[in-house]
Specification:
Length: 334
């Protein structure tokens, strides 16, 4: 995606106010304290072009639900306007990682990409990554199905033209296989001023969601824009993931008295038999075969003659980690 050109479609619009009372979000009578505003007028009178989402790491996988990952359409998004300013908003989307190329593998989330169409006042956005615990994409109204996995921040400059923004996570967020993630982007209040989250009408495989943090405009619960009369507001957002690289056990030093393969406390015939039982096995980067005990210090991650010779070399050694320490069954002491 990083080598694609992005075109920002500029649509000159008159800011249209559609009011919503706090008790009835679908009402159309404006209120003095808070109204719903569709985008903003485009003041630069032209089209802007950029480079789109730039991958944090070219080896990562970009996961997005957008049909159009390139276009940001000014005037396509709706937000709550408080008369002199815009309260804090939250925008979100789910990603079902059990689908497609991400299915069945442990992942790490390294960064989140999103777009801002316009922003009056510079600030800092907070990006929260949740696991959706109820197994259904999309949050419950109160977000009670969401479990926080990690957070990051990104600066949002004042801008009259669309911008692509990226929040990097210094420590990647570990993601269990086949998780459903919910990405929440918290845009700070602008008093005075407005913001417009980047969106287009290019289609989406997972719904867009929004809410106001303190319930302004009657949208204190997660709401799909279509419920507000804006079915074509498809927020522009993507996550970047990579497959979790697990440490190879064969890189670890072998433990003391490793020749006691069966762990009974004595290096003897049973250890030779244990090695024969896994003869020819080699690790694949995720495990060390039980009979890999040589050469020191780390072994060679395969079970072969070197391991048999290692047992013979310390034959009869008492390792102290097992065996009979007191009178045993069928043993008579005089």
């Amino acid at each position: 995606m990083s080598n694609q050109r992005m075109s920002f479609t500029s649509i000159a619009t008159i800011a249209l106010l559609v009011g919503f009372s706090h008790a009835a979000p679908h009402a159309t009578k404006p209120t003095q304290d808070a109204t719903m505003i569709i985008g903003q007028s485009n003041h630069n009178g032209g089209s802007s072009r950029g480079t789109g989402f730039t991958l944090c790491n070219p080896a990562d996988l970009l996961v997005s639900e957008n049909g159009d990952l390139i276009t940001v359409t000014p005037g396509n998004s709706v937000s709550c306007f408080g008369g002199t300013g815009t309260p804090e908003h939250k925008y979100g989307r789910s990603h079902d990682l059990s689908l497609g190329a991400t299915a069945g593998i442990p992942l790490e989330l390294t960064c989140v990409h999103f777009a801002i169409s316009q922003n009056s006042l510079a600030g800092t956005a907070t990006i929260n990554v949740y696991s959706d615990l109820n197994g259904v994409a999309g949050p419950l109204g109160d977000g009670s199905d969401l479990w926080l996995l990690g957070s990051g921040t990104v600066a949002i400059p004042a801008t009259t033209v669309p911008l692509m923004l990226t929040a990097n996570f210094t420590t990647p967020i570990a993601i269990d296989p086949d998780s459903i993630l919910f990405i929440e982007m918290v845009i700070p209040e602008s008093f005075p001023g407005t913001h417009e989250f980047g969106s287009n009408s290019g289609g989406e495989l997972s719904a867009s969601w929004l809410k106001t943090t303190n319930g302004e405009c009657g949208i204190g619960s997660w709401t799909n824009p279509s419920a507000l009369g804006f079915p074509n507001m498809h927020i522009l957002e993507a996550i970047e993931v990579s497959q979790t690289v697990l440490p190879d056990p064969c890189n670890d030093p072998l433990p003391n008295c490793v020749e006691d393969v069966d762990g009974d406390g004595t290096v003897a015939v049973s250890d030779v038999l244990a090695i024969i039982g896994t003869w020819g096995e080699c690790g694949d980067g995720s495990f060390r075969p039980a009979g890999d005990i040589a050469p020191l210090p780390n072994g060679d991650c395969c079970v072969d003659v070197a391991d048999i010779l290692a047992v013979i070399g310390v034959w009869g050694t008492q390792c102290g980690g097992g065996g009979v320490t007191g009178p045993g069954i069928n043993e008579i002491r005089i």
